[in-house]
Each structure stands twice: as C-alpha cells, then as structure tokens.
Specification:
This protein has about 1450 residues and is of the alpha/beta class. It is built from 41 helices and 54 strands. The strands form 13 sheets. The protein has a seven-stranded mixed beta sheet with strand order 16-29-30-31-27-28-17, with no helix packed on it. It has a seven-stranded mixed beta sheet with strand order 25-22-23-24-18-21-26. It has a five-stranded mixed barrel with strand order 40-41-42-54-53.
Length: about 1450
C-alpha cells in the first residue's frame, strides 16, 4: 500500500491517520507529490483525504477509528463533511465553532469514547484555519472553552504535535505585529505612532441610521486589524447623538453584520452613556469663555460663517450664555431657536473652525434616554471627549474628516483631557455607487429597491445576497490596507477577490437560455445516467447525476456555430459528429442531428457545447425552470460631484431577468448556495426551486442571482472591446473549449486564393455587417455572457470565411477584388461638401447667429459652467433654430453644434466615397462608447431619431409601472414629496381635481338631506380604547400626541384614524327621540393612519383627505337603502366625473369593515399592474356602535322603552386621484377627463419669431386673448400660455404631460384664415375649426369624456374572467386578470386561496415586486348565474382543497 501526499494543507488528515496506524498497517508514505493518492493495488486507488482516511481506518477495525458500530460510522461521516464545509467556510465559521463547542461540553472526543476520524478531521480543519488560529493567538477562543480544551489536548499528543509543526497557519491579523511574511494580496498597513503591544485601544463608532455598507466594513476591519496586531482593545460604540435618526432595528442589524464579518469587539458602548459628562464639559466651556449660546437663524448663521462674520451673540456675557443655555436644556420655545457654539476662530481658513455648533436643542425622545434630555451634542463635539473618556489611544478616521481634525484637537486641548492620536485612511469610493446613508435611505423610502438588503445596494447584507463572500470582502479590504491615497475604484476588483474564494469549491451545473432552444437528435444514444464530479478540479465538492438520451437541447447561439460533418464536444459526454442541420427561411438552425463518436477523445480543436437531455417518463430526470437575474448600477454616472443631484442620474431597468431551462440537479440547491453555470458564470440561489403545487398545478422556478467575477465582460459598465478587435478581449475571442494563447512567432505567409465572383462575396459581407450589429446590440443590452460569446464567435468565423475566400482580412470600407472588377478613376477619400442652397439674407443672418451660439454653448460646457447658464444658452440656440425653420421651412443641418439631421441618401458615388470615413467614425464610436452623464429613455421604434430629454417621463407605463407612476405624478405637478415619509404636498393641479369631486358629491348628498359638520382632530385614549375593546379585529394604526411644549400630557391623545369615536358620543347626547332621526351628517377632513407598508402617493398614505358620512336611522331598512344610494353616488363620481368604470359589490366577511354588519364597495381594475383597487366603501354598521355608545331613542309606541339606532358610515378619499392617474395616464404623462380638469383648453400661440413684425405679433396675441374670453363665455375652463422663454414645442409637451384635454394652436397662417387647430390629448387627433365653430369645443370635450370611459370600460371588461377551475384561476391571475370564481364564503378558505395562488409577481407589477396571491375584492351585485342555479348545478368552491358548495361568484384578484 503506497500513500503519496501533497505538501498543501489538504493532506494534513492523511498525515495524521498514516501515523496513527503505523504500528498496525504497513504503508509506504511519500510526501513530495502534487496531489493525494493511495494506491492499494493495480486496480484500486483513492485520491481524496476522506476516502483515503476511511479506507485506512477500515483496515484496522480494532482501533475503532471509523467507529465501533454503524451508528458511530454515520456520525463520523457527518463530522468529516462538517469539517470541510462548515469550519472551512469563513462566512459560517463563527456558528460552526459555537455548535462544536456545545457538542463537546460533556465529552473529550466528538464520537464515542476514543479517538476517531471525526476528531482527526475536526482538529485538522481547525489547525489550518486562519480564523481559528487568529482566535488562539489573540486569546479570543476563551468563549469556546470546550473546543479549546479539545484542540489543546490533541495538539499535545506526540503525533499531532509532529504534524502540527509541518502545517502552520499564521493569521493575517497578526502578521504586521509579529513581523512575519505578509499575506498574499495584502495591502500596506501603516504603523501607529506610539502604539505599544497590549495597550492599543481603537473604536468603531457607527450611527444606527441604516445598514452597514462596504465602507463601514472597511472601517470595522481596519480597527480589528490594529486591535489584533497589537493585542489591544476594540470598542464598538453606537453614535446616538441624533435622536431623530436612531433606530433599534438598525442597531440589531449592525451587530449581526459584525458577527457575520467575524468581528468581535471587546466592549460595547453608546455615546449616550456619557451625556451627563458631556453636559458638564459643555457648561464648563461656557463658563471659561470658550463657548457661547447663539439664537441666530440657521440660514443667517451659515451665511455669516461663509463670510467669516462674527455672530451678534459671540461676545455675550457668561451670565447671558448660561441663561440661554438653561432655556435650551428646558426645551423652551426660545431654547429651541438656540445652539451652543465653540468660540474658536471666525477668520480661520478652515471652515470647521469658524465657531462650530457643539450642542443643539431637539425636543425629541431619545431611543435610550427617553425624554430626559432636550439638548444633544454634535458628533464633532462628542467624539473627541468620548474617545478620551473611553481610553481610545488611536482614532481611525477617513480622510474626509481631515478638516475636522484641527477642531478635534482644539476641543481636547481646551478641556484639558487626554489626547488620542488620529490616524487617517482613505475612504472607500466605488464607481456608480452611493455610500451616503441619506441617499440610500431615499432609495428605500421611494421603493426603488426591495430594502436595505437589495442586491444592488453596497450594504453588507445586499452584497452577500448578491453572492459576495465574507472572506472575499475581507480579502479585498485587507488588500487596500490603510493607505491615505483617495481613488475611485471599479467593482471588478472586489468581485475578482471573491472569485478566488468561490471558484475552488463551487459546483458546476448546466442551464440553457429558454428562448430559441434547438433540439439535437442523436439516434442510438442510450437513456442513462452517470455520476460526474461537480467540480473538475476538486473531488471533495462531490458528484452529480447527469442524464443522457437520444434527444438533447442546445442553445440557439451555439447551433449557429456548427456545420454538417463538424466534430463537436458535448461537455460531460464526449464527441459527436453533426450529420444534419435543419434551417428555417431566415437561415436559423431549428433542429440538428448527430451521431456519437465517443471513441474519439481528441477535444483540443472542437467546439464545446453545453446541453440538457430530454428524458421522458423519468421523474428524477426532468429539467426544471430557472430564472437568472442580473443587476445593473443604480446610477448612470461613475462619480457625482457635490453640485450634482443624484436623483437626476437614477438608472432604470436595473434588474434583467432571463428565463432558463435548468439541470435537474438544481433542485437540490438551498437559499444562499453558490454555483457556477457552465459557460455562463457564477450564480447564487436567492429562491430555491419549488415543485408543482397541488393547488396551483405550477412549479416555482429557482431564482439565481448572477455573481460578477471581476472580468470586464461581466461588469455592468460598457466594455471597451469591439467585435472588430476581438484580440483585445481574451474572453470574447476564445472559441468555445479552445484555449487561445498569444503567439510570438511570425505568422507564415498565406497564399491568396484565386479571385472570386462578387455574387459569392456580397452575401457574406452582408452577413458580417448584420452579425456585427447583433453583437453591438447584445452588448448594449448587457445580455448574458453565453449569448454575447456565441454571437462574437459567429462573427469571427464569418470573417475567417471571408479571409479564406478573398485572402484578405475583412475591413468594412474595402471591397474584395472580383473577376468582373474594372479599373475606375481614383475617388477622393472625402467627398466635396455640397453647395448651400440659395437662402435669403435674413436666413443667412440667423444661420450665422446659430453658429456663434453653438460655439458659445460648447464653450460653456467645456468650462464647467453652471447648469442654469448652460440651459439659458441652449434655450437661445433652440429658439434661433426654430426661427430659421419658420423662415426657410427646413431644418438647419450641421450648424450650431450638429443639431440638424443628415440626409439619409446621397448619390451612389458620394455614398461610396464617404464610406471609409463613415466606417472609421462608426468604429471609433464603438471602441470608445460615450458614457451619458444623464440617463435617457431608450426610444421606441416610432420615436427613433427623436431627441429625448428629462423633461418628460423617462420610463414607459408598461415597462416599469411603479417608476412611471412616481414620475408622472411629480412631473405633472400633482404632488411634491415631503420630508415626513408617507406624507405628500398636494399641488394646485391635483387639489383642483379634489375640489371638483368634493363639489359634485357634496351637492348630491345635500339633495338627500345630509348636512356638513366638523369634529375635532384629536381622540382621547379612553374613547379609542373603548372602540377597540368592543370590536373584534379592529387595530387602528394610530399616531399619538404625548407632549405639549415641555410638559407631558396626562394621557396620550390620538390623531383620528377615523371619526366614529369622536362623533358617536355626541350622537348619544343629541338623539333622544324618534323625531331626531334620521341624523345625516358628513364631514370633509383629513385623517392619519400611520401605516408602515410601502407608502404610495394617493393610493396609500399616512395622511389623506376624505369625506366621512355618519348617519343614524330608526329602522334597518331605511339605513340599508341609504347604503346603496351612497354607493351609487360613489360609482357616479368614478364613472361620470373620472370616466372610470367600477364593479359594485359587497365585501366578504373577511374583508368587510370590522365594526359593520356588511360593507359595499366599488372596485376598479388597473390594467398596467393587473390589480384591483378599492374605490370607495359604504358600510351598514347595524347597531354595533349604537350599543357601544348608548345611542338610543324613545320608542314612540312605548315611551318607557329605548331603542338602539341603526347606523351607516361611508367614505371617499383622495385615492380617487391616484386611480384616475393609473387608469388614464399614458407614456406622455397625465390624461385628464374634461369634467375634472382644472384647465380644459390651453391656448398656445405659434410661429412667433424674431423676424415677425410687432403688429403681427400683437394681432396674434390679441386673437388668443379673444379666444380665451369666448371659450370662458361657453363655460369652459381655459388658459393661454404666453410665456416667451419657452418654444411652442416645449409648451406642447408641458401641457400634454399635465393632461389638459384640448390644446388650441394658433399661428399666423391660422390667423389669416380665421381658424385654429384643436388637438385632443386622449388620442392626439387634430381638428381644424373655424372661428364661428368654436362652440363645437363643448361637444368635443363630451366626446373625449365618453371615449376615455369607453376605453377604460373595454380594458376592464376584457380582463374580468370567469372560471370554475383552479388551474385556470391561477393562470388567469398570472395574466393580469381579475377572476369571477365560485366561493364558499369561509374565511379559512379565503386565506388558502390567497396563500396558494401566491407566486412571483415580477411580471405582474414591476421587476422585483413582492409575491402576492389573489384576495377577494367583492361579491359583485351582477352575478353570472343566480344562487338557485349555483345550488342546482352543484357548483363547488374554486379552491381544490375545499370541496364545499359555492354560495356565489366572488371577484378575486391582486390588489393594492
């Protein structure tokens, strides 16, 4: 028996086992091999540590190394696997050793009562683990006492001690201090001045206002590095000086992330631990004249600091300062206007030294201290003091704090406290990445991302979810060292480090792009399975099952690479010979046939293809659906300046999904598993595969997130390589399966072939040109690597074919020599410029101005002028061009910075002669793609060639509905975002809509005898709790007022979430007799519901406007009649005013208002999201509230008896506006129904130019004014846009965006012909009307209103489907429909329907949207069949797990 061992750490367990059995088994051991191999005989050998050790242990059963019984052997197998997968995994190390420590609490050995392979492998894994050795060296293993005892005991045994000296693992964290060799890839770490072993104290002070991102991770790991290097102390301190930003959830997450990074601080503190001492020191500075209290307004204070002007309070007396300080500490009105400032130097060149604020007054509760303090220190004041108090010796800060270092030391010196040393290191800056917590919070609050753990975020959680390993992150940061050099890094570096970690251990699987799969038939191939290594170079990763059969699938791009008679290698199978290719009319391969050629093992010069077999009637062989997801950057510019607003550079479509067909082995993956898909790259499992549900009949695909590997082709920035220069891109120039190496040999001369006919060359040149376009398009769209590689490879092969036929390298501008070629006269490289058409002197003068203005614009942009200056210059240039076109009737080409359009086609000679120049320019553009500074929408086919600006909407409604809605409501000037999340400013354009709804509904309810009232905003705690205790399931999301000034209220007061508890006590006082009934009251007000779901303007907000009607009646019949009357009025608001069809119905028991007997509703369908939305509700409350609040009246027939009233409540909110936007809005913006439009007609004068005479201009403006007057006399809401700083085109777009129903255009020609042009907003139809026909506008507005309703009704009707089948139910739901289905009305069944119909909703609403099942929207009043017919037909509930008889047909769907 011969054992050959390698010299790396993998062989440590084999060294141990061979020594342990040395006296029992003869083994010839050599330790100079490159790999492990145990040769038992000529036929039997083992090559992995686990298999070698198991075999040797079985050879000496008396030692019980493999256990004394099968149970112990099974346990040992578990621990062998545990050692390689858990302990060796840096991300899992902490949990792994904690678990081991518990297992060893009452045992000396892991399995049984003697040494086994389990002990050997666990000890070996610990010994070569740098994480464990770091714990040992720094004595951090004390928390693992049992494991430490186990490790120390075995290490003391003779043979273990001998092997331990052969394999050492020095922790990287101690290398700098011990003087040992630095870890490979480690950066330079500066020495800390004055640092002494065992005495260094450092701190990591994050603010708990968000998740840790990669920049924080760098700070934490650098502090840990110096802690471990000098065997010092690391303090974890939460900077909680700002009560408004602190969040206990963030504190918890930060601590969990530190544990994930294997960072174990020695102490945990808070800045607030020292608030009392900070107050004392601040007051001491005031008494010493080193600080003063200032009540200057913040804006003025900033202005004075910029101008280096001293504050009026700078020379206040100490007594006055102390008096004002007392006001601050009390939190009084005066105190809240003040701040304390350090008296430093207002003339300093360092702005941080110009009397910085050190304390501010904030009357807000603190997460730890509650309401104890009214004043809080600034971070810059607290930091040096707390550092000194906690014994910090070295304060590590990024270089961005360098200006504040002087302030830090000034505070220390003035207070006479111990001075820590500041060491600055560079901040981590990454391209296309925002690190500011404020900006990241904006993305979270505005629903641009899933949350702080979004894979596009630079947070530790987000990056790990995307596939970054903790070990890769730590390696990257260590490689940066503690350098002070500031640079902007690319993401490829961090992903390259990550690849080094994952590549040696990740298993390889196969997945193919579902689109365009090509069947490959291999007659005679047997249906069978084989065990193949998951990793070709690491057998420890394990084996996988690969299925083979006579029919396999390959990708369309791969099929284009093969030809008949080619020898092709199928990965994990062998060689085949292509015998037949079937192509469609376009030449694309649709199927292929081949024969096995497995005896040919020459794989060097073959095309390598990945494939998947289709094996029927074998469950374990079925391939599974997969969804591969790639992510882009959240912003479009690599780096933003301080002046640039990040919101202007937000990317769209940053989540790209590709449907795949996956290897059956992907079923075994769990969330967080990392794999490599062959020829596509690395992926991490975000959601595992779920098999067919018994309810939906559908399977849920495995969702895989792409992990970049650091190569340029996998990064989301555009690559610099082009198909024309494949040699510059090693990855794209490889032939599949062939390793390309640069050659230093001179290529042999190639004989040129005979001249070929042009008829053969021209089609080939056309194919090359077409394929080049395909490659560029794929790269622009950032397609999958496999697709790009396949397209590039096909392009290369076409060019090689061209070279074979012509003997020349393909160059786009050149033509090959042919037999029919004739000598022609030399053609100049650049054609002469065509002569200008004869134009008038006026036009020539404007043209000159355009050229001058174009030059001015370019100079401003080059000089980095302000945006406002550039905009003004561009506006002038555009106006000049408009004037030129008006004068000449043609666009100006080439002038003013190339704003004009080039002619599509010149003469044949000119086109041919200009080809080289055009090709050169095109090639240069491809090789150096221009990075747009601002994101623009990709134009549609019909928009091709149009300039796209940021003035309009930047996403299409059907592409990203959520972002479209956000942009539409803000750019149409409906809302403005507010600094309190979930609250919004309603701008005049939207409030006018609400006023019209309010006026219409108010007039209608007054016809019913309803009166308006107003009740207070506040609700007492007792009243609200009284309602809560009497109504099941009523859980109001209430905002509370707890303080008045500096005084705590005796009991909290709620802000009304609804008004039942406010109004009904008054009803009980007012209603005494039947003569007081009915009492019909309504109030228009606002309510607050502090929802913590994702807020969405108009649809779900924390504060909203509404009307709430509350009525009391003597009889139930009277009350119920009113419920339906009000519901009809709500329907008319939507259908008559807003042109939105509704479905009227009754809510189920689960969905009804908790305090009512039943609820009626209007439901609306939103086409773009496929969801339903509740429009308005009318509730019959019965006697629930009257019994709760004792609202009674004397029985007219029996005065001694009191009867409870019957009550209703009904409400309509500003949600109506949001629904209107969602239903009618389009890709140009808002579309307003005429009946609610603030402006029904906008009049815009056109054709006003600088050349127009004053009289003509005045006549045009006067005519527009006349139109406005006459339109108003017709009762129309009209406005004219006479702004002279905007062009007519700009105004057209502006009012289209705002949704004005009709645009009236009037130009000089119209003026002469006594006519105007009316343009409809809903369909862009233009109608020419004579002046005497202007009354027809009223009818046109009515037609617009009707057309909008009809369009919305058509959409709604087409998407309300009926089915009794559950599978069809789920399919219809996925197709964005609402479904009428039979329902038993049981609440548990309703819950099951929602749960079992839930699936990934990425395709339903927007990419990355949360999963949502179907909920009941209502029981429509219009039923497809009657209840009796349902009962007679025996219709069952739609849910397959129910089986109960249906009661009615209920409308189900996804909802808001």
């Amino acid at each position: 028996m011969k054992l050959t061992l390698s010299q790396d750490n993998q062989s440590i367990s084999c060294h141990l086992i061979s020594g342990l059995v040395g006296g029992k088994l003869k083994i010839d051991v050599t330790g100079d091999g490159t790999s492990i191999n145990l040769q038992v005989n000529n036929n039997v050998s083992f090559s992995t540590p686990a298999s070698v050790c198991r075999y040797i242990a079985r050879c000496v059963p008396e030692l019980h190394l493999y256990g004394a019984n099968p149970v112990e052997a099974t346990e040992i197998d578990h621990w062998i696997q545990y050692s390689s997968q858990r302990i060796a995994c840096a991300t899992d190390f902490s949990k792994a050793v904690s678990y081991l420590d518990k297992c060893l609490s009452l045992k000396s050995f892991i399995v049984g009562h003697s040494l086994t392979l389990a002990d050997v492998f666990i000890w070996s894994a610990l010994h070569v683990s740098t994480d464990w050795q770091g714990c040992v060296v720094n004595e951090n293993c004390k928390s693992y006492q049992n494991l430490c005892r186990f490790y120390s005991y075995l290490s003391s045994q003779p043979h273990f001690d001998t092997v331990a000296k052969m394999f050492t693992a020095t922790p990287s964290s101690s290398s700098a201090a011990s003087g040992q060799t630095k870890q490979r890839d480690a950066g330079k770490f500066a020495e800390l001045p004055g640092a002494e072993m065992g005495k260094v104290v450092v701190r990591f002070p994050p603010e708990a206002s968000g998740y840790l991102h990669v920049g924080h991770a760098k700070a934490a790991l650098l502090n840990q590095y110096y802690q471990q290097s000098f065997n010092g102390t690391l303090i974890m301190r939460f900077d909680d000086t700002n009560p408004a930003k602190e969040n206990s959830e963030f504190e918890k997450v930060i601590l969990e992330d530190l544990e994930l990074l294997n960072i174990h601080p020695d102490k945990f503190t808070y800045t607030s631990d020292h608030f009392d001492r900070l107050l004392e020191l601040a007051e001491l500075m005031v008494r010493n004249g080193d600080a003063y209290v200032d009540d200057t307004a913040p804006e003025l204070m900033k202005e004075e600091r910029d101008q280096r002007k001293a504050s009026a309070n700078r020379d206040n007396s100490v007594d006055k300062n102390l008096s004002m300080w007392a006001e601050m500490k009390a939190g009084s009105v005066l105190g809240q206007k003040c701040c304390m400032r350090a008296k430093v130097d207002m003339s300093s060149d360092n702005g941080c030294m110009r009397d910085p604020a050190v304390y501010r007054c904030k009357d807000e509760p603190h997460i730890r201290t509650g309401a104890k303090y009214k004043v809080y220190p600034t971070y810059d004041f607290a930091c040096p003091i707390v550092d000194s108090l906690e014994g910090v010796t070295h304060a590590l800060r990024t270089t961005e704090y360098a200006d504040r270092d002087e302030q830090y030391y000034w505070i220390v010196d003035k207070l006479g406290i111990r001075k820590p040393f500041i060491y600055s290191y560079s901040r981590l800056n990454l391209q296309y990445t925002l690190m500011s917590k404020r900006k990241l919070t904006w993305f979270v609050n505005n629903n641009y991302v899933e949350g702080w753990h979004d894979p596009r975020f630079p947070t530790v959680r987000g990056m790990i979810r995307r596939g970054l390993t903790v070990e890769g992150l730590k390696s990257f940061i260590i490689a940066q060292g503690s350098s002070k050099a500031v640079n902007l890094m690319e993401w490829d570096k961090i992903w390259a480090f990550n690849k080094k970690v994952i590549d040696p251990t990740v298993p390889r699987y196969t997945a193919l792009d579902r689109e365009g799969l090509v069947p490959l038939h291999i007659p005679g191939a047997p249906v069978e399975s084989k065990q193949i290594a998951k990793h070709p170079k690491n057998a420890d990763v394990g084996m996988k099952t690969v299925w083979y059969g006579p029919k396999v699938f390959i990708e369309k791009t791969d099929a284009e690479l093969i030809s008949v008679n080619d020898t092709v290698t199928l990965v994990n199978w062998g060689n085949i010979i292509i015998t037949k290719l079937d192509k469609d009319a376009s030449g694309a391969v649709v199927s292929a046939e081949a024969k096995l050629n497995l005896e040919n093992t020459n794989f060097k010069n073959t095309v390598k293809l990945t494939w998947l077999a289709e094996v029927e009637n074998v469950d374990d062989a079925s391939n599974i659906p997969a969804l591969a997801v790639q992510f882009g950057y959240l912003i479009t510019k690599p780096s933003l300046t301080k002046e640039e607003n990040f919101v202007d550079f937000i990317s769209t479509n940053t989540r790209i999904e590709t449907k795949m067909l996956g290897d059956v082995m992907l079923k075994s993956l769990k969330k967080g598993d990392t794999i490599q898909i062959q020829r596509k790259g690395y992926y991490i499992c975000d959601e595992p595969y779920e098999p067919h549900s018994r309810y939906t009949g559908c399977e849920s695909p495995i969702i895989l997130f792409f992990i970049p590997d650091g190569s340029q082709r996998n990064m989301t920035t555009e690559t610099k390589e082009t198909p024309e220069n494949p040699s510059k891109n090693k990855e794209t120039s490889k032939k599949p399966g062939k390793q390309v190496k640069p050659s230093t040999e001179k290529p042999p001369a190639v004989d040129k072939p005979a001249a070929v006919d042009a008829g053969e060359i021209e089609p080939l040149v056309a194919k090359i040109t077409e394929q080049g376009d395909v490659v560029r398009q794929l790269k622009t769209q950032k397609a999958e690597k496999g697709a790009i590689d396949g397209a590039v490879q096909l392009l290369i092969e076409l060019k090689e074919k061209y070279k074979t036929m012509t003997g020349e390298t393909y160059k786009p501008p050149q033509q090959p020599k042919t037999k029919t070629e004739k000598k022609t006269a030399a053609v100049p490289a650049t054609p002469p410029a065509p002569a200008d058409k004869t134009i008038s002197p006026e036009a020539q003068q404007i043209k000159t101005k355009i050229d001058e203005q174009g030059t001015k614009v370019r100079e401003l942009k080059t000089a980095g002028a302000s945006k406002a200056d550039v905009d003004v210059a561009v506006k002038t240039l555009l106006d000049l061009k408009t004037e030129y076109k008006t004068l000449t009737g043609e666009d100006l080409t080439g002038a003013g910075g190339g704003g004009g359009k080039k002619k599509k086609k010149d003469t044949a000679a000119a086109a041919a002669s200009s080809a080289p120049a055009k090709e050169t320019k095109a090639k240069a553009k491809e090789q150096k793609p221009k990075q747009s500074s601002k994101q623009e929408v990709q134009p549609s086919k019909q928009d091709a060639g149009k300039k796209v600006t940021r003035l309009g909407l930047e996403v299409r409604k059907d592409d990203n509905f959520s972002l479209w809605y956000t942009q539409m409501i803000t750019k149409a000037e409906l809302v403005e975002y507010y600094d309190v999340s979930g609250c919004y400013i309603l701008r005049p354009w939207s409030y006018s809509i609400w006023e019209k709804i309010q006026r219409y509904f108010d007039d209608e309810i007054k016809k019913l005898g309803v009166e308006n009232v107003y009740f207070p905003l506040f609700v007492s705690q007792a009243a609200l709790e009284r309602e809560k205790s009497h109504i099941a399931d009523f859980a109001p999301e209430v905002a509370w007022v707890t303080r008045s000034g500096d005084t705590d209220l005796p009991e909290p007061i709620a802000i009304r979430p609804t008004s039942e508890t406010v109004m009904y006590p008054a009803y009980a006082r007012w209603i005494k007799s039947h003569r007081d009934l009915p009492m019909l009251l309504n109030q228009w007000n606002n309510v607050v519901r502090w929802e913590f779901k994702h807020p969405q303007p108009f649809i779900r907000t924390r504060e909203f406007l509404w009307q709430e009607g509350h009525t009391a009646h003597a009889t139930a019949e009277e009350a119920i009649t009113e419920v339906y009357t009000i519901l009809d009025l709500y329907a008319s608001v939507y259908e008559y005013l807003l042109a939105i069809p509704v479905i009227k119905g009754r809510k189920t028991e689960k969905e009804k208002f908790a305090g009512g007997d039943f609820t009626t509703t209007t439901e609306i369908y939103i086409k773009s999201s496929g969801r339903g939305v509740q429009g308005a509700t009318s509730h019959f409350l019965g006697q629930n509230f009257s019994k709760m609040f004792e609202i009674v009246y004397e029985d007219p027939d029996n005065p001694s008896k009191h009867l409870y009233v019957y009550q209703n409540s009904w409400g309509l909110t500003t949600r109506t506006i949001g629904v209107m936007c969602m239903v009618h809005g389009d890709d140009q913006g808002l579309v307003l129904p005429p009946r609610v439009a603030a402006v029904q007609v906008i009049v815009i004068p056109c054709g006003i130019t600088a050349a127009m005479g004053a009289e003509e201009r005045e006549a045009l403006i006067k005519k527009c004014d006349e139109y406005v007057v006459k339109f108003r006399q017709l009762g129309l809401r009209v406005r004219a846009d006479f702004r002279d700083n905007y062009s007519p085109g700009w105004k057209f777009n502006h009012w289209e965006l705002k949704g004005v129903p009709i645009r009236v255009e009037l130009g000089p020609r119209d003026l002469k012909q006594n006519q105007f042009v009316a343009v409809r907003r809903d369909n862009n139809e233009k109608v020419i009307m004579k002046d005497n026909d202007m009354s027809n506008l009223t009818g046109l507005l009515d037609r617009i209103q009707t057309a909008m309703f009809d369009s919305a009704k058509k959409d709604s009707d087409e998407h309300v489907k009926q089915t009794d089948d559950w599978s069809e139910f789920c399919q219809l739901l996925e197709e964005k429909n609402l479904i009428m289905a039979p329902f038993c009305m049981d609440i548990p069944c309703e819950d099951n329907i929602k749960k079992d119909s839930a699936r990934d909703e990425a395709g339903v609403v927007e990419a990355g949207g949360a999963s949502m099942g179907a909920k009941s929207l209502c029981i429509p009043f219009e039923q497809p069949i009657t209840t009796d017919e349902i009962r007679a037909k025996g219709v069952k509930c739609v849910h397959p797990g129910c089986g109960k008889p249906a009661v009615n047909y209920t409308l189900f769907g996804r909802s808001y």
